[in-house]
Write a structure and sequence with these properties.
With about 190 residues, this protein is mainly alpha-helical. The protein contains nine helices and no strands.
Length: about 190
């Protein structure tokens, strides 16, 4: 397998496969609490995906590892205590942690976002700091939105939102940042 295609497969494994399995298990589980069944499936799938990633690349991306650990904690609490509140607040916690991380970089003028994407996107430190603030605000928005939805809607609606709402919102936000990144990349290429 070529390096680029294997990276794409690995990224799919830990970014999307657990979410797909979560949704399928929730929809098709014939158990008293399908959300707990879906949570077990998602934790197992995430562990599988991270293991395969490590076997193939000898590394696990930091964000995927952090998300996996948080999922194991909140998923474990959901299953052990048989209380779905823990899996429902997990997106809030993850998004707030990402926001804190990015705002720390923003306020200390350290382009922490560049450590995650720096190899793929060549822009100035100042541009990374601007992107950090934008992403930090977006993660706060997602955290608040998750809180509103899980507290005011049915579990079915929350699951639909988790699978079909958060991902498209994230993709749209990413696309909204492309013009800024392209402009900044042109500035860097002119300087070289």
């Amino acid at each position: 397998m070529k390096k680029k295609s294997s990276e794409g497969v690995i990224k799919f494994l830990y970014d999307y496969l657990p979410l797909i399995v979560f949704f399928a298990c929730y929809k098709f589980a014939k158990t008293p609490n399908p959300l707990i069944t879906a949570t077990i499936c998602m934790v197992v799938t995430t562990f599988f995906a991270l293991t395969i990633s490590y076997i193939l690349t000898q590394k696990i991306p930091a964000v995927a590892l952090a998300s996996g650990i948080i999922l194991a904690i909140f998923g474990g609490l959901t299953v052990i205590l048989k209380d779905d509140i823990f899996i429902k607040i997990k997106p809030t916690i993850v998004n707030l942690l990402f926001s804190v991380f990015l705002f720390y970089g923003f306020f200390t003028k350290k382009p922490l976002l560049s450590y995650l994407l720096g190899e793929q996107v060549k822009i100035s430190n100042e541009a990374w700091i601007i992107l950090s603030a934008r992403w930090g605000l977006f993660f706060i928005f997602l955290a608040i939105l998750n809180e509103i939805i899980w507290r005011t809607s049915s579990t079915d609606f929350w699951v639909q939102f988790k699978v079909f709402g958060m991902m498209p919102l994230s993709m749209l936000f990413t696309l909204s940042q492309v013009p800024f990144m392209m402009k900044e990349m042109k500035k860097i290429s002119k300087q070289e």
